[in-house]
Design goal:
homodimer, 767 residues, alpha+beta, Aldehyde Oxidoreductase, domain 3, Aldehyde Oxidoreductase, domain 4, 3 domains, seven-stranded mixed beta sheet, 27% helix
């Protein structure tokens, strides 16, 4: 444990940070008063609805919208012809919001209407007549790479995206030759989806000067604003404003990290109709027309020396991109992180190909590729340990990351509690005590970005803070709360710094008119980056208060302390004053002032260059999960008996919310491991409902212990690191490893359904 | 013209300031899209309605609300018993929002209901049974001062408010003795009211933690917040938040400078019902239950020496306070200004008494007492000039205020264009050419605060400014736009400073969660104070941009200029860059930043002390009005033929809005002079409708010329001074003087109705 501080409250006594304060908006939500986009109805608002393709791959021969246009109550009908040529979506702008001439997936938009009611809008869709010429589709990414495969986009001449995921650190060939033990496997993962309780939706409206306001469930208000401004420009509306308002969101998980057809179509319809237009997805649309996690085919080979030290890791991947390109195509940039840096390994090779198919296009989802990569790595770690004859926990500890490391990719490991996490799991779950038949234990570790992740020119976040005459704070943050509780975190950080209570802090968020820029709620970056932005603003105001209090209380500014809504001088109980009173004195004195501060925090991390090297985050989060399962050898059903998820979080700003993140992550990870799958047949979603899409629900609740390792990161706000995604990262391999431990079959294809377990058991028994 | 700069564009070429840019929200308003409080409907909202007293003065013997409570759809019925003891309104907190035991005016609130519809709420009011014991009322303030007058508030032992309006600068008695000419008169003014097109209203709601949000048509979001927090405290809700949101307002004119019963009752009802409660006044309520301008009885004596120099001014006033006390009771503090400082006069005496009566209670109204005082002063000036045998214009010029003066009250006259205003009026209106029968001309001048007015501990305003990646600005201002166009002024000032267009500036205003503190939209202070606050924020951002541009363009920061959305170095056309591009460079560079700034501006003016001396404003606005009237000697009807309103405005930030302010002020002043009167009979409003309350309307439109004198005030933003109120200040005396000039009768009682003119003409003719 070199250079690690595992001190919960390192350098000062904390009053608000570290406390399990319930969500400030919990009661509002519980009472049904929180305003979701579903609740918003604007005067004169129309209802938009989108018509999707009937085929996975087809030419559109003819569209006749005349009957739909003639329907009473219909204000507009749009087809691909009505979309400005330069209006394109996605990471490489390959996707117009309504397609013209050709559809490439069942999810492709072919028309949209706006009408005075949702019923009329639906009726109008039924009246649109389209003649298609069906074409052969391609649905398997590996087949799509073959030379004579049908092309999803003919002008591109290939189904393989031109993306640079190809690295080689060290010398993998040499290391392989020198290895004592080498294992090689193939793993596969399929589509899973976010299942946000709040479905997607947007309301667009224009003012008289053609400035846009759009309400949308987005995790990226500032980047969405950029996308919308580009759409306005494509529509001939230059130099306009786009105001993005994010209502209270019922879950994000990465699904809202891009802008989508429904938003751009709402914009087109609103502009055409000169009225607000709302498009809301129902649950079937939410399943059919939002983006999934990338299915992957993963080839992994790794080795170790006779002492169990990892010598090399060689991975190759094929990702199903679907018919269009969203941020999902960039998940290999995050997969790089566990591949190069989960455990110490000097020689690393990685090649990934994103391949167009006629499937739904994929997107970001909690972990952003890390769950797929870690499934392969951590399954392979167990296989390799077994081959090397080593204890699987000892094997991991031999190769553990440590504070001070710089990994082959250039990640600089500062705070690191990986070993403590492994030990905590070992402590909580008795690994060597599985005498019961069909019962086994598994372990898997994780590394994830915990201090921002530079995927854009800026990884920054702004905050503006003002105080009133009563000692209350309003803080406008760029950070986006999508249900995870960022507003609480922000409030606790500011309250701690200014000696106030969390309830004294009002967090104003996610209206681009009011809130400063932020790159978005992704990469588990919000606590770290938005937290530091808020903390910096609080520090600026604190300094001003200290200076003013110094004059009033006649003690040095630096000696003024803050607690329980008071400033005070520790040495003298007389020298104390309520903060509100002090602020009024500052305000109502000659040349008075009200306290305000602004702060922009951009972490000192790096954008990876062309060589795909660089310290992408200021710090990294670590964790280890342990699970005990019972496998029913008659049915193949896996029951989770116990779960331990130990995380190095730097500092738990709010242990209650932290638990919530970990529990939620683990449950999502268990679904990924065992039950969840968007079933596609030739590009068509066959289970677009909660009966057939098998989410873990309350009834599947699992006993989860979540030991918290506090390493007090030197750069994190009060030492905190991000913990949004890690909870779901190592779950699947931990479960797979436990199943192997229990019944000796290794399932390499997610989800690990009873059918697959049973088939493997039968095969093992030689049935 | 000593030390006056009458240079329109003094020191730099201006691109945006000085331009007649139409209101940025004009199209929205014209298209019916602007959201007034009338348009706001919240989910689950109830409708509140107030029951008023049936008598001007009575004991409440019994209230029975049982039938009202039993009515289906009624959620709450409140009486005075339900109002917490400490919940009081007004300047001296003498007014509970619902009265208990005793009513003192027809406007007194006796009960309130909240119901699911307005109809049910009205029906419920009808079901409330009240038994009154009527008492003798007192309706004449001078009679109310008599010893055995009935007492409006018995516990006070007197109807005269204990307020300090009693000054004596110099030695009036001595000066009177030494005067060559002395005149003495009595003037009277009556109730007039604001007639805002948008009636009053509020919507209150509480969140689950008992924090209040209130939408209200207020001119004082920050001070209203303070009042509401006090009400919450009285309700036992300590340490809560009160968020005040001001929707788009349809006119203020001082009517919204206090908080009122309907707001506090909405709060009580919302808390009781746990739902949003909206109370909206209809037009009859707006007439009956909002506050008027103070009726005044004015005794004035003034004199001059043989050269026409004013020697003294001695004024005494009785103000009808009505049954309760709002800010109206403090209007003598502003009356002091013209009394002590309109024209040079060394010896000044003033005594004012505010007197309780059983009339409606009065409040602030455009000019805040100045129109009443100036009516007496400027009428008396003509009387005195005539007595001294002097030309009335020459007489005024002899006594003119000048830059550099310090008046007996301690007002420091900096920029001063009074003489230029008088000359402009003289130039535009041929004064000595009235040969036509019944035609006459009149002139009157004004002084008003033009650089803030310190009536509270702080006269400040805060502004927060942020810029985005596209060169657009969001500015959050404390300043309140109530229709006068402050948002435009703010946008133009910021755009000018940053080389942008007005449309690039988005002004976010009047939500206390977001906007910094401001003392309110009164005293013609907003352009000066909120303008300086915004300008200061823009200057801070400008400096940062210059520093960054200096590095990029490689020229000294101070030489970087801003224009047409570009920064440039004047010497070299190559050294130029769009501001948006520069901002993106600043943002996307290592340790990038987004530009934000906050600024609090509190003018360097003084609160008057107990001696009622002090420089209450940073600068003063001056003006002179001239009018030509025709009096029909058969009917007494006065027709306004021509009107000239010349104002020293420092700088016209937006000449179009300036004209609007002046035209609107003059028309309001003409109503005050000739037609407007809230007719009260024993405390009862007899003309609560637009048929009988004779507002000047479009059909009464008068030709108005508005010469603008720009004196480029050294402290004003781009040299500007306030011009919100002056337009209506000298109108009545100018008209009265013109009538005297036309037909030789002097009317000393406003409004100057045909009846009064005819009676005076008859009296003059000896009929």
């Amino acid at each position: 444990m070199d250079n690690i501080e595992v001190t919960p409250n390192q350098d000062r006594e904390l009053s608000v940070v570290g406390k399990p304060i319930p969500k400030l908006d919990a009661a509002q939500k519980a009472m049904g008063r929180a305003e979701y986009i579903q609740d918003i109805k604007l005067p004169g608002m129309l209802y938009g609805k989108i018509l999707y393709s009937k085929f996975a791959n087809a030419n559109i021969v003819k569209i006749d919208t005349s009957k739909a246009k003639a329907l009473a109550g219909v204000h507009a009908v749009l087809t691909g012809e009505d979309v400005p040529k330069k209006m394109k979506m996605g990471f490489i702008k390959d996707n117009p919001p309504i397609k013209k001439g050709r559809v490439s997936s069942f999810r492709d938009e072919v028309a949209a209407v706006a009408a005075i009611s949702l019923d009329i809008a639906k009726k109008a869709l039924d009246l649109i007549e389209i003649e298609y010429e069906e074409l052969e589709g391609i649905f398997d990414p590996e087949k799509a790479m073959e030379k004579d495969s049908p092309l999803v986009h003919e002008h591109l001449k290939s189904n393989v995206l031109k993306m640079p995921w190809n690295i080689h650190y060290g010398d993998v060939e040499k290391a392989e030759k020198e290895s004592a033990f080498v294992v090689e496997d193939k793993f596969t993962t399929t589509w899973v989806t976010h299942c946000c309780m709040g479905t997607s939706g947007a309301i667009a409206l224009f003012d008289a000067a053609d400035n846009l306001t759009i309400y949308s469930n987005t995790q990226i208000p500032s980047l969405a604003q950029k996308d919308f401004l580009e759409s306005l420009k494509a529509m001939g509306l230059e130099n306009k404003r786009a105001r993005v308002i994010k209502p209270i969101i019922g879950g994000g998980f990465g699904s809202k990290l891009d802008t989508y057809a429904y938003e751009h179509i709402a914009i087109l319809l609103a502009h055409k109709c000169k009225k607000p237009v709302k498009i809301m997805f129902d649950r079937v649309e939410e399943f059919n027309a939002t983006s999934t996690r990338q299915p992957t085919v993963i080839y992994i080979k790794q080795g170790c020396d006779k002492n169990g030290r990892l010598t090399f890791r060689d991975m190759r991947m094929v990702l199903d991109n679907g018919a269009h390109t969203s941020w999902g195509a960039t998940t290999p940039s995050v997969m790089l992180m566990p591949i190069s840096s989960l455990y110490k390994v000097e020689n690393v090779k990685y090649n990934a190909k994103c391949v167009y198919t006629n499937n739904t296009y994929s997107q970001a989802m909690r972990g952003y590729g890390n769950p797929q990569a870690t499934f392969a790595i951590e399954s392979s770690m167990d296989i390799l340990a077994e081959k090397a004859g080593m204890d699987r926990i000892e094997f991991r500890k031999i190769n553990k990351n440590q504070s001070g490391d710089e990994t082959p990719q250039g990640l600089k490991i500062t705070s690191c509690g990986l070993e403590e996490c492994i030990d905590a799991v070992k402590e909580e779950l008795k690994f060597d005590n599985n005498s019961e038949k069909g019962v086994g234990t598994g372990i898997a570790s994780l590394i994830h970005v915990g201090g921002g992740a530079r995927i854009y020119g800026s990884d920054g976040c702004g905050a503006i803070l003002k105080m009133d005459d009563y000692g209350k704070v309003d803080i406008f943050t760029g950070g986006t709360d999508m249900g995870q509780g960022l507003d609480n975190i922000t409030a606790q950080i500011v309250a701690e710094e200014l000696g106030l209570l969390a309830e004294d802090i009002n967090v104003v968020h996610s209206d681009t008119d009011v809130c400063p820029w932020d790159v978005g709620a992704h990469a588990s970056r919000s606590t770290f980056v938005a937290g530091n932005a808020a903390l910096g603003a609080a520090k600026k105001v604190k300094k001003k208060i200290q200076e003013f209090a110094s004059k009033i209380l006649d003690v040095p500014a630096k000696d003024i302390k803050f607690k329980d809504r008071n400033v005070f001088f520790p040495g003298d109980p007389e020298k104390s004053m309520p903060i509100g009173k002090l602020l009024r004195k500052a305000h109502f004195s000659p040349n008075g002032t009200m306290l305000m501060a602004e702060n922009f925090y951009d972490p000192d991390n790096r954008n990876m260059g062309k060589d795909l090297k660089g310290n992408m985050s200021m710090t990294y989060s670590f964790g280890a999960h342990g699970v005990k399962v019972k496998v029913d050898e008659e049915t193949g059903k896996v029951e989770v008996l116990e779960y331990v998820a130990a995380h190095d979080v730097g500092r738990a700003i709010n242990p209650l919310l932290l638990e919530g993140q970990v529990y939620g992550g683990v449950v999502m990870g268990l679904g990924y491991a065992l039950t969840e799958e968007v079933v596609h047949q030739n590009g068509k979603n066959m289970n677009a409902n909660f009966r057939d899409y098998k989410l873990f629900t309350a009834k599947d609740a699992v006993k989860i212990k979540a030991p918290v390792i506090e390493t007090i990161d030197k750069d994190g706000p009060f030492g905190a690191k991000g913990i949004g995604e890690p909870g779901c990262v190592p779950t699947a391999p931990a479960v797979a490893n436990a199943i192997y431990d229990a019944v000796g079959v290794r399932i390499k294809d997610l989800p690990i359904t009873p059918e697959k377990v049973l088939a493997a058991l039968k095969e093992k028994k030689g049935d």
